[in-house]
Amino acid sequence: MPRLHLTLPSFGSWAAGDWGRVLDLARTADAAGIDGVVVPDHVAIGPHTDAYPAGDFPLPVDAPWLEPLGVLTAVAAVTARLRLGTGILIAPVRPAVVLAKAVATLDVLSGGRVDLGVGTGWQREELEAAGVPWAERGRRLTDGITACRALWETDGPVSIDLPSVAFAGIRSAPGPVQRPLPVLFSGTLHEHNVRRIVELGDGWIPIMGATDDDIAAGVATLRTAYEAADRDPATLRVRGPADATLEAVPALLAAGVTDVVVGARGVESALEELTERFADLSRRG
Fold it and tell me: What is the pLDDT of residue 16?
């Protein structure tokens, strides 16, 4: 059954400095039957936003951004059933052992509700400020999630020897409740990203601005790759955006999207109606 997620406005001016409003909205979404929330990520923003992949960057460079795993931990404490998603977490700026511990902790405290959406990020200054060379961002993502997977899924000591991550005989407990913990990779489906999704992931987050045809073609590519790797194509998750009208939902579902994401701005007071309309459109599809 398709799922409906709400992007929490944990950034910019929506909360007007009263960040408790973000948690209030999460409570309302939980009660209204929304399936999950998604929280975006920037640990820092440099002055050059021209590389933003969806056109003009929608916020001023001095806009505030809350750290998503911290936000989702607070959301977990005030909700009972919402899935807790990142969209996307810039994984390369976080050391693998730190990321593995933080995500496992969130999954444990939430009772197994984490959906980890990850990517390389798009701003050179942000990555380089965290000590990540721009040219190595893809390798850091692959190695980092490989290391996280090993730490999450092994109860004994873990050893990793990869180009950008290496350690020997370490333990990181407790592991997550979900085994495997769902990981969705963002971005275009070049050869390396297809391999990441098939070997390390559970789904795909198309780039912003992808058309229905782009998504359908990508889903076909990934399902073929899943079959070749002896994975069930029916388990592939695909997260795609819709606006508050939900008019795009039938086409998204037809293209292979399993998880629809709607921005919270403008729908905060009508979440029950949004949920009902989404359920109706999903049944028709």
Answer: 82
The amino acid at 184:
L
Determine the Cα–Cα distance for residues 24 and 138; give it in Å rounded to an integer.
36
Q: Per-residue pLDDT for 285 more than 70?
A: no
| Percentage of residues of the chain with pLDDT beyond 90 | 92
Is residue 209 within 8 A of residue 178, CB to CB? The reply is: no
Q: Note whether 209 and 54 are within 8 A (CB).
A: yes
* Mean pLDDT within 108-131: 97
Please tell me the distance from the alpha carbon of residue 58 to that of residue 78, in angstroms, as a whole number.
29
The residue segments making up the domain with residue 231 are 3-284
How many independent structural domains does the chain possess? 1
| β 166-170/114-119 pair status | unpaired
Give the global pTM.
0.96
Mean pLDDT of 203-231: 97
Ramachandran quadrant class, 33 (left: phi over 0; alpha: psi -120 to 50; beta: rest):
left
pLDDT reading at 208 higher than 90: no
Burial class (CB in 10 A: 0-12, 13-18, 19+), 16: exposed
Alpha-carbon gap, residue 167 to 165, rounded angstroms: 7
Q: The domain spanning residue 265 has which CATH number? A: 3.20.20.30
Question: Can you name the residues that pair with 7 across neighbouring β-strands?
Answer: 38, 263
CA–CA dist 257, 239 (Å, integer): 6
